[in-house]
Amino acid sequence: MFNKYKPLNLYTNFAEAAERFPRQAIYFDETLTAFPELQLQTTYAESKEALIKKATQLQKIGVKKGEKIIIYKSAKFDTYLLAVAASYLGAVPIMISEHLPAETMDILVARLDDPWMVFDGDTAAKAQTLKNLPASKLIAVEDILATAFDQPCEQECLTPDTISYMTHTSGTTGVPKLIAHSANSMGWRTKWQKNILSLIRKRGLVAFHISPVHSRFNIGISSLMAKGFPLLPIANPSRSNISRVLKDYAPMVLETHPNHFVQWASLAREEPSVFESVKYYHSTFDAINKETMATFLRCSKYRLPVFLQVYGQSECGPMIMRFHTKSTLKTTNARAMGIGMPGLTKARIVNKDGKPVRTGVSGNIQMFSKGRALTYYKETPRFEENVYGAWWDSGDYGVKSRLGGLSLLDRQVDLVDKIDSTLAIEDALLDELTFLDEVVIIRGKNGSPQPIIAVSEHAEMNWDLWWKKVSDLPHLNEPILMNYEEMPRTATMKIQRLELERSLQSSEN
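Structure tokens predicted for Acyl-coenzyme A synthetase/AMP-(Fatty) acid ligase (509 residues):
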């Protein structure tokens, strides 16, 4: 099962996969702004040639080895392809969510010392108003497409320990931090991922809707291509599009953010045939409630479908894993995230002073990962605040069982007085109240637990069931209803809880 370690150069990995599996397919649900020539279907080999062309065009515009280039555009697969093209030049792609406002972008641009920036129609208005980036460093996607050249340029490589890729934190507690990765740190993460993929014997179609600016995206795509899987990156996560795309392509594997699975669960209950082709579900970033997982597993036409839940963090990559089936979910605590991968990842629980605690005692979750990021760019002291030798303080709060299983209880900054785990209560409510798309418990007036809920667009709020369900729980304030789309979120659809708290406090003043 276990795969050999190899540093990850984005382009080299792509090219090697194209050489081994040239005719393997990549499908799209929308045409790609920066790669219109690929249309709605391409192959590994065709997309590799398009990458070299795009890299050459970027070089003609002026991008050089070692320079930083921000990819700040609509969330599609070509965001990743542009990063691969940048890596072909030996440039450093900086992956930034299109949702970040211009004010935040100006801070990040200043931190990056005169970078380039690629933008498209979705981000043009913000990109063109930046104060810290001259117009000469702005590259519209249309400018790339219109750049002529005679001969393709040659690949250039950075050394394996050099910063070669950057992502950013969610920014839930302020301006996002820039997370620096090297070919070596990313290589350990792909080894972890390829070990998981080795369990899948058939190379069936893999569909996924994941933020392309998150480190999870490049690790996932690089690993899938190294194993030769056909790909179906989904740009539009709307119910109607998901229904159409999954019926048309019938993927064997489906991955998305936990919150998208929660939102799609109503579709799975109403039209289970949409997901019947899926044998393997994959969710990462956060824990997900049991009923949501069970709903999707019941849709599958396979006798033993599997839901793989992975707990990880941008700074450390994929960490803790657990495989769920329809039978195991009956007795599973969804807060129980599982175990690490021997030799690559593990977790421990410590007190506020960073000292390990006894089994069964709650505390701060610290992670050991061979794929830990290098630093926060230009903010090394902030990175070092979380470093405890070989261990990284995740900012999460949890507990370990006698058998070594890790349970996630809360974010350290989100703890609510007199509640052991807000996440466990949210899970319980989502498990029972299937007319809800979201439940978030934050600190309300005087620190009291305040639920914020979103009702599914195809359902109505059932107050009788709500009050019946919460009667056995710790006291909760009367819930505040919000539209799902109005809840502030990160690029990976996590709720920005502190932002919700600030908004609530502002409305009360």
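The two ends are 58 Å apart (CA to CA).
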